[in-house]
Design a protein that fits this description.
There is one protein chain. By secondary structure, the chain is an alpha/beta fold. The protein is 35% helix and 15% strand. The strands form 5 sheets. It has a 7-stranded mixed β-sheet, sandwiched between helices. It has a 4-stranded antiparallel β-sheet with strand order 13-14-17-16, covered by helices on one side. Strands 1-2 form a two-stranded antiparallel ribbon. Helix 7 links the parallel strand 7 and strand 8. Bound molecules: pyridoxal-5'-phosphate. Pyridoxal-5'-phosphate binds next to helix 4. The site of pyridoxal-5'-phosphate has 13 residues, from helix 4.
Length: 466
């Protein structure tokens, strides 16, 4: 049976730098000055504290970012003055709360350059990715039987998967952008394939061209690796998926805080990120979806606030985004996330990206000079954000992290929810240093100095600054 291929209605020409990272105007702005970074630091209360007798150096922003006072205040002001259940109440507070919630949606839509009704609030990126995979699974019910459509959601038929179809991911993915696709493949009979990582942790567009083909229905890919910080060459990958009518799902968790993010310019159908990595609260994530896609896809969770009519037998659903937001939504979190968006917009995403560019070079150069330290993906020529995962020869990542913690430096240890990529690098764990908007070059130097002290601390050879 001939199948309808998905062709998105809107496809705007992108203006891109190498790597597919869209920078408005195609140019990087000037990096932040030291005085500007000091001004930014003053807005993060947590940076005033000490850890283990040292001023805190927070280099775990890739796991979760610290919060500026404007975010903390926005959330607590909402709770103090405007808290009420949205959409339902006739009273003034309910109206104010609804307005604040929808204003937050609008702020995020403008940040991404998309329409308000293309923004769905979720709990985090993990839920957003599960939402998409689950909804595609529902769209696929019955699709393998001849003559049957997309279960009880006929509008979703073009997105149904069945045996013989392929879902393509990459070896770089965080588990959140891998396991939901494994499960979708298991539920639909589709096959999960992946674009292998190269030795340097990048992706080979030619390998991608061999894997993405007529059978591909979904390409799910990370924008920035949470292990190497490398930017995915979307400008090479997305056209391959477009050519075969596959959906493109972008995990923008590690790009949204660091680079301008324009899903339409990148020509992706779905883009997700977590509020807490973008200086916003925990408990809130964002799913951008093309309007025609969101309106066609079946809901993920079912209940109140997402329906037009309910009888004892059936229900009819509201259009997106409300069909995907059943129950009482995350209100103060949405308001806090909007404050975080205003905060990064005040600084300017182009300037943040330019500053990270400088920090990334300093971090990599400094770590590369430390004997006995291997940087995962060091040779990847792709642009990168200021994040590096390292393996210290002869020292377990957890022990290495402990040495840094003793000096007040917060870093991440483990597999960072990316076991396949660690396996590809031949290691089980690494120590990750990841910068934020408040990170100074001095802090990076302190961290590099501390890394140089790790092997000598365990009696393993020389290291500068030990
Ligand atoms: C690349 C990437 N994707 C997805 C996630 C999942 O984010 P969350 O735990 O906020 O849902 C993370 C978090 O570390 C990540 O780095």
């Amino acid at each position: 049976m001939q199948r309808t291929r998905y062709r998105p209605r809107r496809s705007r020409p992108a203006q891109r730098l190498p790597g597919g990272t869209a920078y408005p105007g195609g140019v990087l702005a000037a990096p932040l000055t030291s005085a500007e970074i000091e001004g930014i630091r003053a807005r993060f209360p947590i940076l005033r504290r000490e850890v283990n007798g040292h001023p805190l150096v927070y280099l775990d922003s890739a796991a979760t970012a610290q919060k500026p006072d404007s975010v903390i205040d926005a959330e607590s002001d909402f709770l103090r003055t405007s808290n009420a259940a949205v959409n339902r109440g006739a009273h003034s507070l309910a109206g104010e709360a609804t307005e604040a919630y929808e204003d937050a949606r609008g702020a995020i839509a403008r940040f991404l350059g998309v329409d308000d009704d293309e923004i769905v609030f979720t709990s985090h990126a993990t839920e957003a990715l599960n939402l998409v995979a689950y909804s595609l699974g529902t769209a696929s019910i019955g699709a393998s039987s001849p003559g049957r459509g997309a279960g009880s959601h006929p509008g979703a038929a073009p997105f149904a998967l069945r045996e013989g179809d392929e879902i393509v991911v990459t070896e770089l993915e965080h588990h959140a952008n891998l396991i939901p696709w494994q499960e979708l493949a298991a539920r639909t009979g589709a096959t999960l394939r992946y674009i292998p990582a190269l030795d340097h942790g990048g992706l080979d567009p030619e390998a991608a061209a061999r894997i993405i083909g007529e059978r591909t229905r979904v390409l799910a890919v990370t924008h920035v690796s949470n292990v190497t910080g490398g930017v995915t060459p979307l400008d090479r990958l997305v056209p391959l998926a477009r050519a075969v009518g596959a959906l493109v799902v972008l995990d923008a968790c590690q790009s949204a805080p660091h680079l301008p993010l324009r899903p339409r310019e990148l020509d992706v159908d779905i883009a997700v990120f977590s509020g807490h990595k973008l200086y916003g609260p925990t408990g809130i994530g964002v799913l951008y979806g093309r309007a025609e896609l969101l309106d066609a896809l079946p809901p993920f969770l079912y209940g109140g606030s997402m329906i037009t009519t309910v009888t004892m037998e059936r229900a009819e659903y509201l259009p997106a985004p409300h069909r995907f937001e059943p129950g009482t939504p995350r209100l103060s979190q949405a308001v806090g996330l909007a404050a975080a968006i205003r905060f990064v917009e005040e600084v300017g995403m182009e300037r943040i990206a330019a500053t990270e560019h400088v920090l990334a070079a300093r971090l990599l150069d400094g770590l590369a000079r430390v004997p006995g330290v291997r940087i995962l993906g060091a040779d990847n020529p792709a642009p990168r954000v200021a994040l590096a995962s390292i393996v210290v020869d002869g020292v377990h990542a957890h022990d290495a992290g402990q040495v840094l913690d003793d000096r007040g430096i917060a870093a991440r240890v483990g597999h960072h929810c990316a076991q396949p990529l660690h396996r590809r690098f031949g290691v089980s764990a690494s120590l990750r240093l990841s910068a934020g908007i408040h990170t100074t070059e001095d802090e990076l130097d302190r961290a590099i100095d501390a890394v140089a002290g790790i092997r000598p601390f365990f009696g393993l050879g020389e290291g500068a600054g030990a």
